[in-house]
Each structure stands twice: as C-alpha cells, then as structure tokens.
Specification:
Four Helix Bundle (Hemerythrin (Met), subunit A), Rossmann fold, 8-stranded mixed β-sheet, 8 strands
C-alpha cells in the first residue's frame, strides 16, 4: 500500500498545468504498472483523471492537491465498487432457511494459501455459529488431501474425502449429501490448484461446479503475485466463473496494486484478505480503509 501512496502523492504534488498534464499522466501510468497495477487498470485510471480534469484551469486551482485527491478518491472508489455486493453470513442464513446447505467452491493455484484460507473461512463461520464441512476435491495431489485434513482437524471440522486420484466432483457431491443429511450449514469445496493453462483442470472445475451447484465461487489469489494473480483470476472467471475474491498475504503487500487490478478487471468484490498465518488472521476487505491507505496524501 505504501508504494501506491507514494505514487499518488508524487502525482498530486507535481506542478501541473494543462500543457504538462499529458506527460504527468504518462509518468503516473508507468509508475502504477511498476507497482502491480495491470496495464488496462492503469490506462483506465489515467483516462478517468484526464476526463475529470477536462475544461479545468489546473494552474488556477486554489487547492490543487485537495481537488486531485478528491478526483482520485472518487475514481478508485468507482473501481473498487463491484457489480453486486455480497454479505456472506446473510446469504448463508437465507439459504439455510430452505433446509439446504450453502455451498462455497474455492479456486486458485498452488502456493497461494488456498487450503489455509478454507480453514480460516471455516473458523470464521464457526465463530459466527455456522457449521461447515469440507470437501477434499483436490484429489490430484495426495498432499492436498492431507493438508486440508490437518487444518480442519485443528479447528474441529469434518473433511469428506475419497482416495487419491478419485473423481473430484464425486467428493463434492458426497460432501453436499452429508451436509443435507446432518443439517450442516455450509459446504467448503477445495479444488486442484494446477496452472490455469491446464485444460483438463478447467474441465474438472466445470464438472465440480455442475455437480455441486455452488452458491458462491471464490477465487483465492496471492496479493504479492501482482499481475500473475490477475491473470489467474481472469482465466478462472472466463472458464468457470467467479463471484468474489479473497486475497492472501495482504499484510505483506507493500504495493497494493493487485487489489485495484482484480477489482477493476473482474468487477467482482474482494470479500476477505489474509493478514497472517493464524486461523483468525482473516479480515473482511474494507474499501474505505484500503482507499485511505493508498491515498495517504497531505493537502497543500
């Protein structure tokens, strides 16, 4: 977050005139891209600033930095505002009224902290008196089944699992049936995390989604991965569909560009951010706090 804050701060303090605006925006664009903001997002942000300043006599503004700050805040708020907002606990309670479990499917590549994030969500639900069961539908790696079982055992959540290399969709199906039989509120479906270019993986994901009929498909992305995280989100969104995001390692992200890019490119909300290794190190993503952190600007 600190690096984006410095980028915006430097832009606001520039001696801008109508003549120098174009070169200042080009410089801002390059700095944004250098701080993990995707090219399309950086282009859009700069274009929106240009549109907002059209017709303004920049040099005559009595408080230029305040004016630019307000423009930036409005533009970034717009970028971070999703097509629809999701109140997870409320959605779960509404679905449970029909005596059916709420089903969450987790997508993401290996190494992003997906399995730990599933455990964090299970722990979060437990704290809110919502029961859950996990489906070990990453049958591609035996270690994935063991890892999920380890985390869920730590927080007292049952895992439905089959043999290594068994059909992932059938594991998800069995977990849903178990939840219905035992009146469990939520089913958490883990999935394989191979590279997104793997067509077999995408077919597997599509089958899991067809069989389990999730109410929510969550993409788990590593906020330190920058454009890689964005490309993964786009691939999953195009092939399977994504409803919302969770960004891991958010506490270590000095740049802050991934959140901005993923929000702009997918138009889906960021529900939570991971801020540590503990099961309670998960926070709801707060747009206002994020904007405040990346626009840590001082008025002239």
């Amino acid at each position: 977050m600190k690096k984006l804050s410095k980028v915006f701060s430097a832009f606001v303090k520039k001696p801008l005139t109508s003549e120098t605006l174009e070169s200042a925006l080009n410089e801002l664009n390059l700095l944004l891209i250098g701080n993990d903001v995707a090219t399309e997002t950086a282009d859009a942000l700069c274009e929106k600033i240009k549109e907002s300043l059209k017709g303004e006599q920049i040099g005559r503004l009595t408080s230029k930095s305040k004016f630019l700050f307000e423009i930036l805040r409005d533009i970034i708020t717009e970028i971070l505002t999703p097509e629809r907002t999701i109140d997870l606990l409320e959605e779960i309670r509404i679905k449970n009224k029909s005596n059916n479990p709420y089903i969450i499917c987790f997508l993401g590549v290996n190494g992003t902290g997906k399995t730990t994030t599933i455990a964090k969500i299970a722990y979060y639900l437990k704290k809110n008196n919502i029961s859950s069961v996990a489906a070990a539908s990453d049958t591609f790696r035996a270690a994935a089944i063991e890892q999920l079982s380890y985390h869920m055992q730590n927080i007292g959540i049952r895992v439905i699992k089959h043999e290594y290399k068994s059909d992932p969709a059938s594991v998800a199906y069995d977990a849903v049936q178990h939840a219905k039989a035992k009146n469990i509120n939520v089913v958490l479906v883990d999935t394989a995390g191979r590279q997104v270019s793997n067509k077999n993986l995408m077919r597997e994901m599509q089958k899991i989604v067809r069989v389990s009929e999730p109410d929510l498909i969550l993409f788990v992305g590593d906020s330190l991965a920058g454009n890689d995280a964005l490309n993964q989100a786009k691939e999953f969104n195009n092939s399977v569909g994504i409803d919302a995001h969770i960004l891991t390692k958010f506490d270590a992200d000095a740049k802050g560009g991934a959140a901005l890019s993923i929000s702009y490119e997918t138009k889906k909300p960021i529900l939570f951010v991971g801020i540590g290794q503990g099961y309670d190190d998960l926070e709801p993503f707060d747009n206002a706090i994020f904007i405040s952190n990346i626009l840590d600007l001082k008025e002239e």
